[in-house]
Amino acid sequence: xxxxxTRLAYCRPWGALVVGTATILALxxxxxxxxxxxxxxxxxxAWQTRQNEPGATLATAIPWRSFFLDLRLQALIEKALxxxxxLKIALARVAQTRAQYNIASADRLPTxxxxxxxxxxxxxxxxxxxxxxxxxxxxxxxVTVVSFELDFWGRVAQLSEAAxxxxxxxxxxxxxxxxxxxSEVANLYYTVLELDERIAIAQESLASRxxxxxxxxxxxxxGAAARSDVLLAEGxxxxxxxxxxxxxxxxAAADHALTLLVGKPPGELPPGRTLAEQEVRHDLAPxxxxxxxxxxxxxxxxxxxxQEAHANVAAARAAFLPxxxxxxxxxxxxxxxxxxxxxxxxxxxxxxxxxxxxFDGGRTxxxxxxxxxxxxxxxxxYEKTIQQAFxxxxxxxxxxxxxxxxxxxxxxxxxxYRERLIVAEARFKSGSISYLEVLDAQRxxxxxxxxxxxxxRAQLSTAAQLYKALGGGDSPDx
Length: 478
What we know:
Layout: H1 3-31, E1 57-58, H2 64-67, H3 71-83, H4 85-106, E2 112-123, E3 134-150, H5 155-221, H6 227-262, E4 284-285, H7 289-294, H8 297-318, E5 323-334, E6 346-355, H9 363-429, H10 435-469
Parallel strand pairs: 1-4
Antiparallel strand pairs: 2-3, 3-5, 5-6
Helix pairs in contact: 1-8, 3-5, 4-5, 5-6, 5-8, 5-10, 6-10, 8-9, 9-10
């Protein structure tokens, strides 16, 4: 061998080692995704509508029992938090993701198995060389560590972090559902109270129109009223009867929806308050948008899902790098069970394995692309959740101020129309006006009474939704 050939033979393995090392380092550089960083979002520094009241309190500092003071409503919320089927599903999903996280975390630790085997084998005489069969026996007792991966590149750790983020996301999602459930029960309860009050108004209006119809009929009999007035009175009476039937149907549907939300028939409940007796709290402080929104459970859940996607990208990139698996065992082996623990029966096994993907038809690269796409989707979902949360709070803050003014104006309008009806009925009885003016006054009063009740319910529902939107309802005592 010439000196040149000698140098070439000496350098060839080192050259291969350099190339392999360079390849690994290049793949390692490609596998790095960096530490997770929260995406930048354009959240305004303050809400557009100034809503800070003197002595205002953050919603997160107000337990739901202190916000909803109606004892009947409190009982319904307690039952819903216990029996609601959607909440049960969410809690089961939390338990599922917690178990999956435990499974993923277990991959970071070695697995040890204790095994005992007894093998008995008969070899035909044609293969023994002594023209007679031979029977062999072997007894083994061993502790084996099976395929423990040395996680140099963080692949297993990233999968564990992804499972943990998934668990945290499901936990935050269940908290968001819990808060939404409290708000929805309150909203449906206020709807039932609204319909009860509107039904009472309709029944009162129906009784009043029956009296007017009878009065007009007597006037027709005496020649003081025309047939057209009787027909108007009859039409007005039947109109209210139709409205009452619609309200009764809506009341039944709202009651059924509330029962479904609670999860079971409510059963015996403490007495509650009427719609007019419900308190509307105006002391909810909206706080700083960024602090409020980042603390909302639905936003936290969206960010956890983003962290899960980020960890999956890192794990998918680490799959391009070599994997080192260790298999080790320590035990005893003997041709007979009686000699299993005799001196000289010990045995051991150590089997390191290095594997690296060379060609898999693009499967590893495809998995990395899928992880990247899911991360991009998670970023968009997170930004969308932030924007929706900001809009929800901003809309509710604006609605709170508007509904307060609407309620005052509605109550004043009802009082004015009620007085107008009294005057119209007195003038009709004296013969100064026709029944048509009385009918107009009745219609206007009935419509305004219904609107006033609807505004009152909307004000209560807005307060409940704002309480939820600002993160209230999930205090430790609940």
